[in-house]
TrEMBL record:
CDD domains: metallo-hydrolase-like_MBL-fold. This is beta-lactamase. Its main location: periplasm. It is an enzyme of class 3 (hydrolase). The keyword Ligase does not apply. Its cofactor is Zn(2+). Residues 17-201 form the Metallo-beta-lactamase domain. Its EC number is 3.5.2.6. It is found in: Periplasm.
Amino acid sequence: MTALPDAIRVFERGWLSSNNVLLVGADDTALIDSGYLTHAPQTLALVRHGLQGRRLDRLLNTHLHSDHCGGNAALQAHYGCHTSIPAAEADKVRRWDSEALSFKATGQQCERFGFDATIAPGELLTLGGLAWQALGAPGHDPHSLIFYCPAERILISADALWENGFGIIFPELDGASGFAETRATLELIGGLDVRLVIPGHGAPFGDVAGALRRAHSRLDYLMADPLRNAQNAIKVLLKFLLLERQSIALADVPALLTAMPVFDAANRRFLRQGPEALGQWAVEQLLRAGAARVEGEHLLNEA
Ligand SMILES: [Zn+2]
């Protein structure tokens, strides 16, 4: 029950780059999400190989985090593909407001791209010859979309639902609401008839009920003490920097963390620690999780 239809190919990319979903129909081709900037050449190679000589007609983003739209500029340069982004992000992308767009807030990179159209929740799309519904999935990101194909009972869930959990609930970090939205999004997904989820990270999976159960219980855990969401965010953001750079001087960790406005906001609200102490705490967390190791004066990425 977890087989993909011929029209859908999933490039599972890991954590620095989100997964990419290539849809190849008789009359149209489309890609959902484009990975991180530094992986753009690999994204292009995967897409070219998957298209086997066909053009990429459309590019769509579930949401505009750097690991989901970092390949947009390269794909647009190569294919001139029609590009659709979530409607609520249009003004920010038009102005390329890197502060409002989260790239600056998280210390992440994204090459500037444009767009041709926007997608609002509720819209219907034909991608790869299949009919899809775009649904609003706020929580991790207030403007995220997910895509549901009723005929195939497939959900492209972005970072709203993974096999084990979901993405950082960013809005809560600077005092906006995100927990309630996450709950509503999980309930929305629970109301869909889904046989296969293609998540933003990790392999496609069939046990939707199990994933929803784990996600609800993780949400309960985070809501019981919002400090946990802030701590998780700091760990994940440091790990992301490490994935990007592979090696960070231990002495640079406090400054790198405080340079991220999202981190600063979370620290002021929840953690209230000096940068040195917090940097040390974050490093210890990654070491304990086996996500990093120390060699001499450097923190190194551990796969
Ligand atoms: Zn995201």
